[in-house]
Amino acid sequence: MMTGVYSYQKIVGKGRSLIHMTQRSGSYYAVIFSSQRTEGDKGYGVTADEIEELAKQQPGFIGVEGVRDASGAGITVSYWESLEAIAAWKQNPAHRLAQSKGKEVWYERYQVRVCKVEREYSF
């Protein structure tokens, strides 16, 4: 398990926002979720906020950032301490329900990538 301080700072306004995470030392994992939304909200906004809050409570969660453009194309990156934490989140019942609704209602398509972050730097 990694240790370290992290914090969230919203730096983009409407909808899913970009979050600044305090820099960390050591490796961790990123789950990159690229998607194309269907038209209309259809309950997406409320559920997305609820799922984000639930993710923040999960063991191994580090942070999340995301953006979406006017066409509905978006990318959300969540950060986790381990592959085990990612696997546990994927199996969370509320998250599984949201995944199902995403396939049926909210997304035209999506792609998920899981990556190991070896280092980071910023300006």
Description:
This protein is of the alpha+beta class and about 120 residues long. It has a single domain, classed as Alpha-Beta Plaits. The protein is built from 3 helices and 4 strands, in the order βαββααβ. It has a 4-stranded antiparallel sheet. Strand 2 and strand 3 form a beta hairpin. Helix 1 packs antiparallel against helix 3. It is globular and about 40 Å long. The two termini are about 25 Å apart.
- Biggest sheet strand line-up: 2-3-1-4
What is the CATH architecture descriptor? 2-Layer Sandwich
Give the mean pLDDT.
85
Weakly predicted, low-confidence segments: 1-18
User: How helix-rich are the residues, as a percent range?
Assistant: 25-40%
The coarse silhouette is: globular
What is the number of helices?
3
How do the helices and strands line up, and which of them pair or pack?
Elements: E1 28-37, H1 44-56, E2 61-68, E3 73-80, H2 83-91, H3 93-106, E4 107-117
Antiparallel strand pairs: 1-3, 1-4, 2-3
Helix pairs in contact: 1-3
What's a quick, concise take on this entry?
The chain has 123 residues and is an alpha+beta fold. The protein has helices at 44-56, 83-91, 93-106, and strands spanning 28-37, 61-68, 73-80, 107-117.
Give me some keywords for this one.
123 residues, alpha+beta, Alpha-Beta Plaits, 3 helices, 4 strands, 30% strand, globular
